[in-house]
Amino acid sequence: MTTFMNILILGGIWGALYTLIAVGFTLIFGVAGIINLSHGAFYMLGAYLAYTFITLLGMNVPMGALIAVLGTAMIGMLIDRYAIRYMRETHVYVLIITLAFALFFQELMYAFYGPHGKAVESFIAGDMTIMNVHVSYQKILTFFVSGALVTLLWLFIKKTKTGKAIDAVAQNREAAVFMGIQPEKIYMITMGISAALAAIAGVLIAPILEAVPTMWAFPLFKAFAVVIIGGLGSITGAIIAGLLLGYAETTVSVLISANYPDLVYLFAIILVLLIRPRGLMGKRSH
Amino acid sequence: MVNLENMFGPKVFYKRLMGLSIFSVLILLVPLVFSDPYDLELLFLCHYYVILACSWDLLTGFTGNVNFGHAFFIGGAGFAGALLNLHFGWGPWLTLPIGGVVAAICGLVVGSFTLRLKGPYFAAVTFCFATLLYKLIMIQQNVFGGEEGLSGIDWLSESTLGGYYISGILMLATIFFLYFLSKSPFGLILRSIGENEIASEGSGINTTYYKIVAFMISAFIAGVGGAMYAHAQMHVGPEMAHDSLSALVLIMAVVGGMGTIIGPIIGAYLLTIANESLRFMGEFRLLIYSGAVVAIILFAPKGLLDIFLRVYRRVVGQAK
Question: Nearest to residue A45, comparing CAs of A218, A203, A205?
Answer without folding.
Answer: A203
